[in-house]
Amino acid sequence: MSKEVKLEEAYGDVNLEMLADFALTNGISGHEREVAQTFKNWAEDSSDEISYDNLGSIIALKKGQENGPKIMLAGHIDEIGFLIKSIDDNGFLRLHPVGGWWGHVLPSKPVTIATRCGKSYVGVIGSQAPHGMPAAKRTKVMEIAELFVDLGVKNKEEVSLLGIQIGDAVTPKADFHVLANPNYLMSKAWDDRVGAAIAVDVLRHLKDEKTVSNVYAVGTVQEEVGLRGAKTAAQMINPDIAIALDVTIATDTPGDDSRIKLGVGVTLEVMDASYIGHKGLLYHLQDLAKELNLETQFELLGAGGTDAGEIHKVHDGVITLTVSIPARYIHSHLGIIHRKDYADTVTLLTEFCKRADADILEALVNYKR
Questions:
Q1: C-beta separation of 293 from 214 below 8 A
Q2: What number is the average pLDDT over the span 247-256?
Q3: Among 128, 180, 205, 278, which is 20 to 30 Å from 238 by CA?
Q4: How far apart are CA 242 and CA 244, in angstroms?
Q5: CB–CB of 211/92 below 8 Å?
Q6: Phi and psi for 39 in degrees, rounded to 5?
């Protein structure tokens, strides 16, 4: 008799309402105010203080003991997008990229344009039908400078009547989807709303706990254009231990090496182009994950960086590690993550914050001495 095959059931206690709220709120680099409000809405019931740095990063603090270790959990709240670079006489908008884009993923995709007075309009990035198109053009990836947004207006004067002007933010438009296997979640902006949501979720899990450590959940700004908010927020907090929470590239799709997979659990980043992870903290989290029966995998990136790249250099140096969430198709309109990676990361970091005390901090400090 053949074995019955069933789809997996949904893993863990994952608040899909919160995840969708984080992912679908618009906020490209330098325009994160609405996302910071979303962060605040979900964090304030579990926080003792909410504050901001002067770039706009939001900091939610759960107080521990007065002299307890300061732990910074940082997920950046900005997403990649565009600014309006120019408006032609026919009302088409030319784009300036904010963050890293590959032109191949953009034609025919919808976007949202936000105006100074708070109105939003939907447009589409124009594409050309292949009929009669020269082969050389069909195989060429379009440069960002060649792309334009079609608002469905008659001319430049109608664009002006809408209140749209040079410099307005243009954000990818997408929906939130629970896929056929309910553990797979698809949306825009997982990079890095999922990291910000994890930071908040750890605070929510610590709400009724008394901790020695002071836990700072931070939504940093302008990561996609140079890790800027992480630097100012870390200078403000001066943490003893920092964990950057960010997506990494899942390589479990056809043609890749299957080294980093969705649904493993916890992904510990050994290094990337912006930092080398603190091995004492990496080994500590690895051992704690094993104790909690959570699977781990290890990531090494030759290019790219996370907020850890700036945080670890603040003041006299910060014990820092990136914990990653594998995601497919990042830096496009839609990406896919897995509930297990989210839930297990929240479980691990919640337990770490519960246990962190002066002895653990001293052991981590002395690891390199």
A1: no
A2: 94
A3: 205
A4: 6
A5: no
A6: -55, -50
How many helices (H) does the chain have, and how many strands (E)?
10, 18
Strand partners of residue 344: none
Nearest by Cα to 124 from 105, 149, 106, 158: 149
- State the CB neighbour count (10 A cutoff) for residue 98: 22
Q: Which residues, in sequence order, are bridge partners of residue 35?
A: none
Q: What is the C-alpha end-to-end distance of the chain, expressed in Å? A: 61
Tokens of 141: 């990836």
| Distance, C-alpha 186 to centroid of its chain | 14
Decide: 147 and 106 in contact? Cβ < 8 Å: yes
Annotated catalytic residues are 223
Using CB atoms within 10 Å of the CB of residue 42, give its burial: 0 to 12 exposed, 13 to 18 middle, 19+ buried: buried
Q: How far apart are CA 131 and CA 103, in angstroms?
A: 20
3-state secondary structure of 275: strand
Secondary element (H or E) of residue 94: strand 93-98
Rounded distance between C-alpha atoms, residue 21 and residue 187, angstroms: 11
What pLDDT digit, counting tens, does each position of 266-308 carry? Answer: 999 999 999 999 999 999 999 999 999 999 999 999 888 999 9
- What is the Cα Rg of the chain in Å? 22
